[in-house]
Amino acid sequence: MAHSLIQRRREAERARVEAYELSLRHVSQRTRPPPDFETAIYEARRGFEADIVRDAEAWKPRMKTRDAARLRLAAARYLFARYPVAEHLEQIWIDGAGLGAGEIHLRKRWYIAAAGGGSLYTAGAAEWLSRKEVHAFLNPLGSVGFEAAIWQAIARSYANDPAIAMRIARTRITQTPRAQNRFWREVVRFFCAHPTTVEDMDDFHDYLADCHRRDPEYTLKGRSLISLGRQMREWHRDLDAIARIEAARRRAEAARNRARGLAASPEQIEDRWLGAAIADWSWTKSSKDRAKREEYVVVQLRTAADLVAETRGMRHCVASYATKCIAGQASIWSLRRRASGDVQRLLTIELDSRSRAVQVRGFANRPPLAEESKILERWAQARGIMML
Asked: For the chain, what are the domain ranges?
């Protein structure tokens, strides 16, 4: 009994000592490592040794921060800077996340040129900016990032109102690839001449990006905000129509797979419907002059995007036939003329499941012209189509 009591007291004492030592570990201040100046100097000078203006070994900063990014910026200022520069040029020394090696090198090069008192224009900025725009880039309005400063500078060269340039610097235009500078410069010039809100410019951004992707020569010349807005709304309606058709196609494909006992993943589902087992067709109208030769083609439309584009181009409702196409009850074809590098839509043809042309319509549902009917007869004869 006495032995048990003594043992319990010893265990209690041991527990108190351990608890006390644990509390000491919590409240005692750990020794902080000194700032790593050596690493900061190494990271700042790497790749730019020829541009150093001060002896790296002589750097003795009075800094308490242990933050590697701030130390790296301080080292860059010491090594390269003769003059202070705007914050957007210094940001690259703090954070280069998400940037490729080439872009990081370019931004550091621009910082070194500007902070060292050199010409940013001759250091590479001339590829995207005029001399006037370089000056605006070095002296931005407000606090902006690197890309925003570029586009603000471009906007300031076109707009007399600084507020317009500042709005443009807040849009998604600043996120566009620099390789597309020529096109987006035209967009900025347009919005400087036709001022609107940041929200409107961001709405236009996706539409204009798609226009440029489909046609690299697309231009805003001769357009207004009203006409551009109308075209953008049509584009959004087309996207909605494509999405509805695509959803219907995926449902139909999934249902067919279930009926066959297949468990296809979404990645395995084709991006187009099967369509009619008839090959596309082409015929070239003979002419001694090669420049005047015309080629006529009849192609099957087997995707939602193709069907909606035909609807938009021909001003009729062929997109409403998507359900029949997906079910295999019909196929839609487009007769087009190619001449001198230009493609013109002439007719839209609906074939039923027995390869009979049950509908033929031109622009705005007009009937086919005599010359077009002759070409259709050639196609029908070549592909075994029955014209009704």
From this structure: 37-194, 281-387
